[in-house]
Write a structure and sequence with these properties.
It is built from no helices and 14 strands. It is an all-beta fold and 164 residues long. The strands form 5 sheets. A 4-stranded antiparallel β-sheet has the order 1-2-3-4, with no helix packed on it.
Length: 164
């Protein structure tokens, strides 16, 4: 019904069997793209704008919405619902990355929650215990001064904000 230059994820057939909702990702190996719908004639339309991260999609109970996990910016995916008309609403937001795997007819979710964090620990002289000097979510050391008293690091991930 539809061919892409990227990849298609989480295809779900509507209860009536006349449409397929799916994640339409921009390039192989990437997870950016949009939630799309294709009918039996192969007419495809995007239900969302382009999102930076999309993972997991399933039909919601009642068949009036499609639920998906994604992030417009960043990688902390939240759970959203979108109607066939393209109206998006937030269902659930938590720290970390949610991935929707399925939704039962009764509305029970099969969802995973991933959370990773990179920090920097230093060991002061004199046997003092280690101290964490970077506490957001993706601190990467770049340089230690010659006197070993200063550390230059970058912070990326969600803790760095939308442009991190």
């Amino acid at each position: 019904l539809y061919r892409t230059v990227g990849w298609i994820g989480s295809p779900r057939v509507s209860p009536e069997g006349d449409r397929v909702a799916f994640l339409d990702c921009a390039a192989p190996g990437a997870d950016d793209g949009c939630v799309s719908l294709v009918d039996r004639r192969g007419r495809k339309r995007a239900l969302t704008e382009h999102w930076q991260s999309l993972r997991g999609l399933a039909g919601a109970p009642g068949g009036r919405e499609v639920w998906f996990t994604g992030a417009k910016v960043g990688a902390s995916n939240s759970l959203y619902a979108v109607t066939p008309a393209g109206k998006v609403r937030l269902v659930l937001r938590t720290p970390g990355r949610l991935v929707l795997h399925d939704v039962s007819r009764e509305g029970r979710l099969l969802i995973s929650h991933d959370r990773s964090r990179y920090s920097i620990l230093v060991k002061p002289p004199g046997g003092a215990p280690e101290v964490e000097i970077a506490s957001l979510d993706a601190a990467i050391p770049r340089y230690i001064s010659t006197d070993r008293r200063k550390v230059l690091f970058t912070e990326s991930g969600e803790g760095a904000g939308e442009r991190g």
